[in-house]
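G., before I forget:
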Amino acid sequence: MNVNDKEELELDLFISMVKSYFDYDFNDYSRASIKRRIKQLAVQSGVEHISELIPKVLYEENFRDVLLQSISVTVTEMFRDPSVFASIRNEVIPALMILPTVNIWHAGCATGEEVYSMAIILREAGLLQYCTIHATDFNEASLDIARQGKYPLENIKGYTKNYIAGGGICSFSDYYTVDGKWAILDPTLREQIRFYRHDLAKDEGFGMMNLILCRNVLIYFKKHLQDHVFNLFDNSLDVNSFLVIGDKETIEFSPIANSFEAFCPTCKIYRRG
Amino acid sequence: MLGYEAVVIGVSAGGFTALSSLLAMVPETFPIPIAIVQHRKSDEHNYLSQHLDKICPISVTEAQMNADVEAGHVYLAPANYHLLIERERQFSLSVDAAVCYSTPSIDVLFESAADTYGNTLIGIILTGANHDGSNGLQKIRECGGLAIVQDPASAEYNVMPQCAIDAAGADHIFSLDEIGHFLAGIRHGCSH
C-alpha cells in the first residue's frame, strides 16, 4: 500500500468517525476539497497523519468547532463579483418593489460580508425596512463574526472599489466607522437581518421566500447533495421569486431545472415560474 | 510502456505566449485529457480559453463543476476558482484561500490530480514568476507520476520552473518545443 492509499484510508476512517460522533456527513462533499482541508487541519493541529485527528474527535473538547471552522472557511468579500450585485440592484429589486413585504434567505452566508452588501443595496432602493433577511450558515463561529459586522480595515479599499463597480449610489464610507484596525459597519444595516445556524444537508427550508442567495456553496457538494439543496430552495420559494447562485454553478441538470428560467443572461440569477 | 491517463500544466507570467505555441502542437485527437492552471487577473473572463480554442487544433474550454474529465480536451481553470480533479474523474471547483496569492493555484490542481491518477499522471511546469506548482510537482513525483519542467534558460520568466526543479526535481527539463514534441508523441496513453 503506497502513501496515497494509506492517506485515503485514513480520510475514510476520519470521515466515518465524524459522521458517527458529530453527525456531519462529509461523504456528501467534494472529496478533493475536503481532503485538502483535513490535511491542512492536521498540519495546524501539529500532527503528521490524518488518522491522528481521530482521537481528537473523541477526546478534545472544542474539536467540533475547530473542525467546522476549518471545513467551512471560504474566501468572501463585500460585493463579491460586483456585476452580480449590479444585476440584483437593476433587475431583481424593481421586481421586489411591488411586494408589501420581502423575505430573503441568504444560505451559506459565512462571515456575512455579502449579507451586509445586500442590506446596503436594499437601503439605497428604499426597500430595507420592508425586508426580512434570514442569513444562515452551518458554522456558528462564522455567524458570530457576521453578527458583529466588524471587518479588517485593510479590506475596505477593495470593498469600496466593488461597491462602486456594483452601481453604488452613495459614498461607501457612509456605511462604516473606523475603530483602530477595524471597520465597524452601520449597525442599523443589521436591523432586518436574522442570523441563524442552519445545515443545508439536514435542516428544513423556509417558506414563501422571494429571493434566495446561495453563492459558491454548492460547488463543495457532490451531485446528490446539490440536488437535495436545489429541491429545498424550490420548496422554499414563492411564485415569481428569484434564486441567485455562484457564477460557476448551474441549475441545469438538476431536478428543478424546469421550474426556473434564466432571468439574467450574464450572471446566475434564475426566476421561479 | 507505462500508460499515461492525464496531463496537468501549470503556468503563470508569460503563459499566454507559451500556451499559444505549446497547445498548437497538440493534435486534435490527443488521447488523454489536459488540465491547465494559468494564473490570471481576477476580472478576466474566458477570453484565454476562447483565444486558445480558436488557434489550436484541439478543443479548449473552461472546466465546469461536475463535468467529466475527457480525452481529446484541454480544460482551463476558470479565473477566481481553484480547479480540482475528483476520484470519479470529474472536475470540482473551490473558492478556498489563495495559494501563493493565486486563485486558481497550480498546487491545488496538481495535488488533487496526483491523488486521482497516481503514476499515470504527467505534470508540466512552464514559465512564471512565483513558486506555485513546486509542492504540486513534488507530490506528483512522490505518487510516481512524470515531471516535466520548461528549461528555465529558455522560459520567458525563469523563477517558477527553477523553483520547481529545486523543490521537486524533474524527469525531463525541456524547451517548449521539446515539450510539444513529447506530448505529440503520446499515443493511446503511452509515450514513445
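The mean pLDDT of chain B is 93. Chain B has one domain: 6-185.

More on Monday.
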